């Protein structure tokens, strides 16, 4: 529906332009005025002043002046040429992403709006008698007002069709638009009067002054925009460097980051690329249906990670055509552009902030926001350093010596805290298949190596905020903070596959190692820690161990009593 509307406007716009071009006939002096106006408008268009969904600009001033000076048909030709040149120069200079249909739609839209506004004012002027100056001001104000209203109307229809829902007028900053209307009307009348009083030289000088004023306002707005973003970002991230639960802080950050960056998907990762194979987001937010597996990043020879590990912010305004990154699966549909913000500690990349979005993100990225992204990266680096320091203090007393995982004491404390605070979590209990046979066949030393081997794979395959522990004997458990049972299953099943595919050499022999796992979650499967553990243990033995092993099952499943 959106494309049909755009094609209709495009066709109508070209018809209006061609019919107006047939009546375009100017003398040399008037041609000079016309092309001076086009050049001035293109220069000002290059430095648009973005405010919300609209732009504060003086280009409308020149459109109104051209209408007052030449009439509606020349104004239509001017608007078509200026808008087309503006978009082309914007693409060449990198300020706009190339989108042919969108460009031609905008060119046609402004052409039609100029024609309707001009013809409407001509009808009013024919039927209303006013003094010369009053009529001049009335014509300029009416033309600009209709131009503005139609602009809002066309954009609202287009966005509503694109988003398949009504695009509210509340998204427009009407005080700014009203100010823009007053300024454009006043300046266009001044231009007209100056040309009549001083002539061509005076008009060119005023065009030059307009460009200088516009550029000065552009610089002011750009600085003000950045300052505002930085203040909001610092307020959002200030809690990250304090002590506390890192997972909750990351959730808070992504939730409030949407108020600063217009994203559809955002995810946050912490990892150790030297010792981990894959990284899952500690926290993620999405407007579409994605599971945690869709957002996993391969840390071994992945095309995208080769860009990330360089440590520089990478912006892709068209992910489908960008050969330097590789985004596949469900993630391709909801986003067109993406930003990769590495989190560095001592020059080593230890994490990533990923943001993906549609055209509004592309527009946002065109506003030179690298400084903001660098601040975001620095704040997250401090948060990660703080978290690592806290872990190092606790590690010695709460680590299982053999496996390097957390011990039972750590697990009991963490799960009780989560239940007490009523925080959502999931867990998987793994049991190494046929572990007794391994001990009986190869001895306890090899059994210890199997435990260390499996534990190493687990540590390399989970998020930094997940808690892996040795529960007892050959049972290992992972506590997934604030993760649904479905997402916990995705990670648990991938770990099982990695263990199955791995090789453990004992002398010249390969010991085949597999695990079975039971997944349960709070509060879905129980009201306390004991119930959750029992449910995971029940599904582990009834559905996995008794039905072939080397499986991961979710409670409730089909439980045999």
Automatic annotation (TrEMBL):
Keywords: Membrane, Transmembrane, Transmembrane helix. One of its GO terms (cellular component) is plasma membrane. Gene3D superfamilies: 3.30.450.40, 3.30.70.270. It holds the Pfam family GGDEF. SUPFAM superfamilies: GAF domain-like, Nucleotide cyclase. Residues 423-557 form the GGDEF domain. It comes from Caloramator proteoclasticus DSM 10124. This is Diguanylate cyclase with GAF sensor. GO terms for biological process: cell adhesion involved in single-species biofilm formation; negative regulation of bacterial-type flagellum-dependent cell motility. The chain crosses the membrane at residues 7-26, 32-52, 64-91, 103-121, 133-154, 174-193, 200-220. The keyword Zinc-finger does not apply.
């Amino acid at each position: 529906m959106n494309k049909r509307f755009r094609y209709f406007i495009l066709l109508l716009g070209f018809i209006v332009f061609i019919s107006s071009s047939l009546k375009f006939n100017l003398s040399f002096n008037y041609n000079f005025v016309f092309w001076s106006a086009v050049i001035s408008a293109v220069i000002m268009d290059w430095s648009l002043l973005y405010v919300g969904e609209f732009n504060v600009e003086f280009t409308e001033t020149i459109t109104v002046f051209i209408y007052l000076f030449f009439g509606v048909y020349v104004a239509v030709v001017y608007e078509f040429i200026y808008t087309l040149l503006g978009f082309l120069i914007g693409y060449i200079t990198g300020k706009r992403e190339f989108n042919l249909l969108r460009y031609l739609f905008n060119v046609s839209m402004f052409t039609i709006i100029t024609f309707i506004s001009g013809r409407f004012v001509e009808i009013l002027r024919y039927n209303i008698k006013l003094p010369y100056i009053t009529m001049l001001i009335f014509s300029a104000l009416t033309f600009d007002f209709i131009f503005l209203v139609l602009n809002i109307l066309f954009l609202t229809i287009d966005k509503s069709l694109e988003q398949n829902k009504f695009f509210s007028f509340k998204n427009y900053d009407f005080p700014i638009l009203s100010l823009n209307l007053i300024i454009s009307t006043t300046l266009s009348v001044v231009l007209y009067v100056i040309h009549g009083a001083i002539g061509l030289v005076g008009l060119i000088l005023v065009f030059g002054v307009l460009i200088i004023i516009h550029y000065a306002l552009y610089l002011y707005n750009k600085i003000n925009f950045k300052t505002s973003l930085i203040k909001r970002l610092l307020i959002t991230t200030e809690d990250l460097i304090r002590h506390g639960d890192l997972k909750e802080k990351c959730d808070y950050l992504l939730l409030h980051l949407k108020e600063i960056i217009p994203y559809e998907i955002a995810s946050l990762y912490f990892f150790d690329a030297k010792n981990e194979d894959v990284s899952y987001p500690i926290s993620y937010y999405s407007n579409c249906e994605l599971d945690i597996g869709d957002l996993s990043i391969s840390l071994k020879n992945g095309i995208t990670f080769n860009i990330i590990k360089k440590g520089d912010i990478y912006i892709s305004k068209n992910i489908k055509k960008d050969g330097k990154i590789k985004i596949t699966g469900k993630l391709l549909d909801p986003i067109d552009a993406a930003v990769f913000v590495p989190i560095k500690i001592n020059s080593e990349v230890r994490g990533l902030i990923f943001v993906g979005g549609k055209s509004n993100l592309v527009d946002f990225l065109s506003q030179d926001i690298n400084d903001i992204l660098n601040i975001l990266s620095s704040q997250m680096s401090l948060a990660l350093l703080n978290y690592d320091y806290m872990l190092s203090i606790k590690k010695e007393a709460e680590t299982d010596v053999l496996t390097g995982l957390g011990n039972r004491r750590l697990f009991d404390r963490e799960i009780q805290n989560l239940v007490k605070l009523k925080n959502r979590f999931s867990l998987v209990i793994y049991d190494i298949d046929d572990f007794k046979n391994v001990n009986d066949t190869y001895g306890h030393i090899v059994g210890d190596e199997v435990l260390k081997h499996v534990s190493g794979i687990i540590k390399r395959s989970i998020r930094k905020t997940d808690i892996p522990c040795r529960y007892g004997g050959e049972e290992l458990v992972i506590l997934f903070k604030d993760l649904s049972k479905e997402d916990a299953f995705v990670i648990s099943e991938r770990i099982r596959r990695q263990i199955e595919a791995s090789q453990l050499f004992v002398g010249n022999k390969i010991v085949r190692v597999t695990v079975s796992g039971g997944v349960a979650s709070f509060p879905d499967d129980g009201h306390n820690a004991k119930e959750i553990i029992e449910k995971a243990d029940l599904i582990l033995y009834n559905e996995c161990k008794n039905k072939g092993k080397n499986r991961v099952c979710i409670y409730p499943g089909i439980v045999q009593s």
